[in-house]
Amino acid sequence: MVSQNILRKYAKLAVVMGSNVQPGQTLMIQGDTDSNYFVRLCVEEAYKAGAKEVLVEWNDQATSRIHYDNATTETLKEVKSYVLDKTQYWMDNKICRLNVYSPIPGLLEGVDPQKIQEVAIAQMAPKVRQEFKQFSMANKTQWCLISIPNKRWAEKCFPNETSETAVELLWEAILKAVHVEEDNDPIAVWKEHNNVLHAHNEALNNYNFKSLHFKNSKGTDLEVGLVKNHIWCGGSEIAQNGVEFNPNMPTEESFTMPDRERVYGRVYSTKPLNYGGVLIDEFWLEFNAGKVVDFDAKENRETLARLLDFDEGSRHIGEIALISDDSPISNSKILFYNTLFDENASCHMALGAAYPMNVKGGLQMSEEELYAANANRSSQHEDFMFGSHDMEILGETYDGTMIQVFKDGNFVF
Ligand code: ZN
Ligand code: ZN
């Protein structure tokens, strides 16, 4: 079993390097009941770091499944006003967040997809929910997403092991990915890691590509236009309150804003996508003028269709991210069934909303101004992986020069 020392180091890393809660600030932690032993350590570490108060929002996935199996769609669609009051409180009080994410892959497998979709749309509909989504995506305050194992997730990753061994193997893989070891200083490792990622962003920003061209043997042949004045981000960010934080742990990506209307060609997925508890696998999307005009999937095609039809922006992409195939998570050869890890093993893109920070001045722009800059807007953001060991990427500059960015799956600079 993982030692108490390691657990505490990881909790401290999440609170100090991740959310970076400031003295006098309130931290809200979202966690599953199965993760209670770890969430408690995060609460302690947050107070040690000077937090004024730590609020915990508990979720129980097994209970969520029971609700889906027993309550009507109409009941599940209801949004209680006291729940929205809480969300408003988080924004009014500029609290920062830590999400201890421990999803069960396929939690809702077998539930009527129509029901899942209707509930998801209704739950995202209230204005306060939309505002909170923008609050987070515009980095109004610090936030951080980390993961810890649960039994069913571990069994999915390591189906040939006993569940006890599977959980240990998943812990091992997660700790390696977030650079937590028995006798290292993970905070120092993360500072160095951030420097490497920032240098990568700077090189890409200097090229100021007009578009990127992706090709591999699986059949991907795709041109992704980038918005004018796009910014490559990755590693730590500065929130609008001036505090540095790491939104994702682990992270290996450099990502930017695609042009909502300039994506052409076909992309093939290389890892399954866990969407609302259902795994969509072996799929492709065909784009024209930025929009998905055709698609297919070997597994859960119906769910993919629902994802694409979620709202006006869900057939367009809001993020394009580059990750070398030769990266620590990719080299582990583990399929995590969890986007936080799998997206850091592979080039990916997201159907749905763009991050305002990925365009110059974006954090100060109104929603309309962002849209006019060709940022995509949607109430969802679903990353899927399409990188491979043989991915070739060419960057096209504004004067028409083609620059090799990836060769055989990896960055060339
Ligand atoms: Zn990403
Ligand atoms: Zn993303």
Description:
Helix 1 packs across helix 2 and helix 8 crosses helix 9. With 413 residues, the protein is α+β, with helices and mostly antiparallel strands. A hairpin with a 5-residue loop joins strand 17 and strand 18. It folds into 2 domains: 174 residues, Thermophilic metalloprotease (M29) (Thermophilic metalloprotease-like, 3-Layer(aba) Sandwich), CATH 3.40.1830; 215 residues, no CATH class. The strands form 4 sheets. Strands 5, 6, 10, 11, 12, 13, 17, 18 and 19 form a 9-stranded antiparallel β-sheet that branches. A 4-stranded parallel β-sheet has the order 2-1-3-4. It has a 4-stranded antiparallel β-sheet with strand order 9-14-15-16. The protein binds zinc ion (2 copies).
Summarize the structure.
With 413 residues, this protein is of the alpha+beta class. The chain is built from 14 helices and 19 strands.
Please indicate the count of domains. 2
Regions with pLDDT < 50 over 5+ consecutive residues? none
Rg from C-alpha positions?
Answer: 21 Å
Distance between the termini: 40 Å
Overall pLDDT confidence: 95
Biggest sheet, open or closed, and with what strands and sense? 9 strands, antiparallel
Number of strands: 19
Helix content: 25-40%
Secondary structure layout plus pairing:
Elements: H1 4-19, E1 26-32, H2 36-48, E2 53-59, H3 61-70, H4 73-77, H5 81-92, E3 96-101, H6 113-124, H7 127-137, E4 143-147, H8 151-157, H9 163-177, H10 186-207, E5 211-215, E6 221-226, E7 237-238, E8 244-245, E9 254-256, E10 258-268, E11 273-275, E12 278-288, E13 291-299, H11 301-308, E14 317-322, H12 328-331, H13 339-342, E15 348-352, H14 367-372, E16 381-385, E17 392-396, E18 402-407, E19 410-411
Parallel strand pairs: 1-2, 1-3, 3-4
Antiparallel strand pairs: 5-6, 5-17, 6-10, 7-8, 9-14, 10-12, 11-12, 12-13, 14-15, 15-16, 17-18, 18-19
Helix pairs in contact: 1-2, 5-7, 8-9
Bound molecules: zinc ion (ZN) (2 copies).
Residues 319, 350, 381, 383 line the site of one zinc ion.
